[in-house]
Amino acid sequence: MITLRNIERSFDYGREKNPVLRGVNLDIEEGDFITIMGPSGSGKSTLLHIVGMHDSTWAGEYYFYDQAVHKLKPKERAELRNKNIGFVFQSYHLLDQMTVQENLEVPLSYRNYGRAEREQLVNETLERFQLTDKRKQYPSRLSGGLQQLIGVARAMIARPKLILADEPTGNLHSAQAREIMEMFVKLNAQGTTIVQVTHSEENAAYSRHIIRLFDGRIVGETD
User: What number of other Cβ atoms are within 10 A of residue 180's Cβ?
Assistant: First the structure.
């Protein structure tokens, strides 16, 4: 599904360059559930944002199925991302001026769904995540656990091939964290590929493969 070859990423600090990723090679198979782990500053989130096509200032080769991402124009990358990838962020990134229902409709706007189909998908997702009674509420008035659940629902509503999750349970208590991770397992069992970044060994245990980063390099892989 995804092939990364010799990925390099540096950040400029004045006249100096700080390398964050150094020659990363990684293959992600369709239907896999991968956890990326490592100490702070090891390049985990940077790698995730490159995979998610949010970051374009890197060197190397990136193939998404048969598409050479490193050769695509910014608009082409955005179209590929919007059609195939869903995101779950630790800080939720929900739109507070929109209701729960309207937040769920956002990813559908990037795809060619008719009005009736969008309405059906929203209703099905609200029911699946037990959020039907929250549809007209604004995210800022809901608990952190509910906001994260909405974030997961928004990530998967358009049935993406890949979900990327950056510390998806970092702000949640243990019961809420288990609920989110169990939802990921269900989505993965239904064929969704998942890549998460986490410091939590407990969360990592839900995945099938663990990739460990240190100083911008992959230093270990375990099943």
Answer: 20
Q: How far apart are CA 47 and CA 2, in angstroms?
A: 13
Q: Which residues pair with 196 in a beta bridge?
A: 35, 165
Using CB atoms within 10 A of its CB, is residue 73 exposed (0-12), middle (13-18) or buried (19+)? Answer: exposed
Q: What is the pTM of this model?
A: 0.90
156 and 86 Cβ atoms separated by less than 8 Å? yes
Neighbours of 155 (CB within 10 A): 24
CATH code of the domain covering residue 186: 3.40.50.300
Domain count, the chain: 1
What the block records as the tokens of 33 is 């559930």
**Confidence class for position 175, pLDDT limits 50, 70, 90:** confident
Could you tell me the residue range of the domain that residue 114 belongs to? 2-222
